[in-house]
Amino acid sequence: MAQNRTALFEIPVERLSESDARSELKELAELIAHHDRLYHDKDAPEISDAEYDALRQRNAAIEARFSELILPESPSRKVGAAPAAGFKKVPHRVPMLSLDNAFTAEDVFDWLDSIRNFLRELKDPEVAIEILCEPKIDGLSCSLRYEQGKLVGAATRGNGVEGEDVTANVMTITDVPRTLKGGGWPEVLEVRGEVYMTDVDFLNLNAQQEAAGAKRFANPRNAAAGSLRQLDSAITAARPLRFTAHGWGEISEPFAKTQSEALGKIKRWGFQPNEPSRGVRIVDADIGELSAYYNDIEQKRSGLGFSIDGTVLKVDRLDWQIRLGRASRSPRWAIAWKFAPERAVTVIEDIQCQVGRSGKITPVAHLRPINVGGVLVKRATLHNADEIARKEIRIGDTVIIQRAGDVIPQVVEAVPEKRPAESAPYRFPEQCPVCGSRLIREDGQVDMVCTGGLVCAAQVVERLKHFASRDAFDIEGLGEKNIETFHSQGLIKTPVDIFTLEARDGRELPPLREWDGWGEKSARKLFDAIQRTRTIPLDRFIYALGIHQVGQATARLLAKHYLSLSHWRAGMDAAQDPDAEARAELLSISGIGASMVDDILGFVAEPHNREVLDALSLPRDGQAPLVTVTDFERTSTASPVAGKTVVFTGSLQAMSRSEAKAQAEALGANVAGAVSQKTDYVVAGPGAGSKEKKARELGLTVLTEPEWLELIGRGR
To answer: Residues 659-688, buried b or exposed e (16+ Cβ, 10 A)?
Structure first.
């Protein structure tokens, strides 16, 4: 029998068990992805920026303690969301990254400490670090491309790798120069900044929307995003948008030595700067001036005339920025110091349970709607039965909610003295609200889980949606509504059924063309779309399978390592033996931890999953496979270590381990944490131990640090 435990999201990170951490990271990944879609794709967020930041804060804290549990689909590895379908996609030659967040002075201190640890010359605390401080405008990130001083293109951030072409819309913004002023600018210059709306303009726009009977915007950021992302540029032209510059992307040549110098030039070329800014010189661990700027801006925020949600701190020296580089989704040389959360009091009107794709049951508090800091809050997750019991939460309770914290929106506590006399303790359901199957809670776990498995519509439908989604098979016309309809009619029960749909059309039910809302043309269009997706790259195929903890990033890691479907399946079969070399090989892939390996191998070993894999990818009855999975293609590069697997061990002298890893990955190498027969190079510094020994036993190439630097063309 499981013990009564504190609800996961209320447990301090330092007290989480590995099992708890794994469960919570998965939930956070799903929750953050949901809000990313609402924010970036639909410009209709359900939570505030502060609430969203709090989710990421909790996720980062757990990942810092349990680095081996980091999910490939972790929010810490992703930027933004995929470009919307109505816009032309524009690749970013220099990725547009998001910023990591700081919420306390201690977080800022830790960030500065990480910079000093990364760059060897900064380990001396007396060496000063110049920091440029700016207000963090709450707008929509946008990149403007100039060639020979002329504006030729504009794009949103999108997923950081490619964005939406909004050139025509940006051309309507009056403070975006069509031609750069003065001279001295690079032939190619991408100016990056925020499209936003002033407070006065926002109020006037909402008044116009109300007068016209149109929907009001929730806040200035949503108004700016919705206005810029219009397919009709005439609508954008009628909206009062502004642009402020705070950085740059691709440039044909360097034009400054510091961030502040560069922004000064960008201002002279015709752009509105991000002000009020301030340069601060940091010596040792004294962040007093940074705190003073933060407090000053927070006090002035209501009088600035536009929405901000914190400050941005940037290392001023550009050569240091280059060396610091980036993590998976954010630069190491900058951080956003966010403002504090807010609280409010409301009433729980109902508690309803939702069923997730994995069968997990999540109780949700339905609140009497309340506006908190400009955000209308209607719901808050209660996470599990233990949290409800610990906080003694009941339907009808007056509760305190918080916009930021460990999880947002969060029910902090009930107010017992305001409890209705007729209230009763909440009884968690014993049956699934979707399929009626029995709910169980495994020993050591806090979550109730539906036992319905494949018969539970909540799980089956969600798995099919994932399979057909944009980043998986990307089947045009087989959206969420059609999947729900086809499943309810019994036409699609497994992924295999998708590719036999046309062959079965008209046999089990009337032909699709005769269905309400369908016709010959639309039915043909869907069948053709399915036909086009029968060929798919290996990484997307693996992602489409919906393996627990295997998101896009992990799927790509697996595809990059095994290259073909047959090699991947053979490797996974061989790795079922815990003592096999194949198991060690899988564990050696950088970014794949032990818990991920268990989930991957468990999926492959499951007979039902093997049946689906075989049915999709193997020939049957003398006919071609339903799906052709193409081999993974490595990105071409001239680097001598591109595609090679490298292991670093021992102490490095010329650079830190983090800088060496980042440098190797930037050159196209795969950095592994363990030595195997697949390892190409082992870079061994002083103090190298078992890894170097194993490498020499296997006859691998072992390099000293100077030899490694010479190999990659960085020898001194």
So the answer is: bbbbbbeebbbbbbbebbeebebbbbbeeb
